[in-house]
Amino acid sequence: MAEGPLRFIDEVGLDVADFIFGEMAHYFPGGSRARRLCSRLLAAGLKGRKNGLGTGFLRYEGRADSVTNAATRSLIPAAGPAIRAARGITSNLMDMMIR
Predict the structure, then answer these.
(1) What's the 3-state SS for the chain?
(2) Phi, psi for 75 (deg, rounded to 5)
(3) Quick check: 96 and 5 in contact, CB under 8 A?
(4) How confident is the model over 48-83, as pLDDT tens digits?
(5) Letter string b/e over residues 25-61, b meaning 16 or more CB atoms within 10 A of that residue's CB
(6) Contacts for 48-51: CB closer than 8 Å, 24+ residues apart
(7) Residue-range domain boundaries for the chain
(8) What's the pLDDT tens digit per position in 5-47?
(9) What burial class does residue 18 get, using C-beta atoms within 10 Å of its C-beta: 0-12 exposed, 13-18 middle, 19+ buried?
(10) Cβ count near 65 (within 10 Å)
(11) CATH top-level class of 5-98
(12) CA distance 99 to 85
């Protein structure tokens, strides 16, 4: 991937990602953490970069990207103990895309 999964979702829009996760639920029942998270962000008015609002998982200001604000972080549930290895973080983010 040229970009990470969270940035990718921001680029296509959280509304589109939420719809896709809903369609995937027909084939992969049991609930999706990714869909629940997208729904929370949408409810808070965070729709991603493609919607022109400049806020989703990341905050976009011109060409620079920065980590989301505290309000966005409060919408994301704790994932458990911190993972130190970059490979572990990558694996968790990719896992989120397929659940």
Answers:
(1) CCCCHHHHHHHHCHHHHHHHHHHHCCCCCCCCHHHHHHHHHHHCCCCECCCCCCECCEEEECCEEEECCHHHHHHCCCCCCCCCCHHHHHHHHHHHHHC
(2) -85, -15
(3) yes
(4) 887 776 788 777 776 666 665 566 777 776 655 554
(5) eeeeeeebebbebbbbbbeeebbbbebeeebbbbbbe
(6) 48/9, 48/10, 48/11, 48/12, 48/13, 48/14, 48/15, 48/17, 49/10, 49/11, 49/13, 50/10, 50/11, 50/12, 50/13, 50/16, 51/13, 51/15
(7) 5-98
(8) 888 888 888 899 889 888 888 887 776 777 788 888 888 888 8
(9) buried
(10) 14
(11) mainly alpha
(12) 21
* Residue 9: other Cβ atoms inside 10 A: 28
**Spatial contact of 72 and 41, defined as CB atoms under 8 Å apart:** yes
Q: Quote the CA–CA distance of 28 and 30 in Å, as a whole number.
A: 7
The single residue listed with the structure tokens 């940035």 is 7
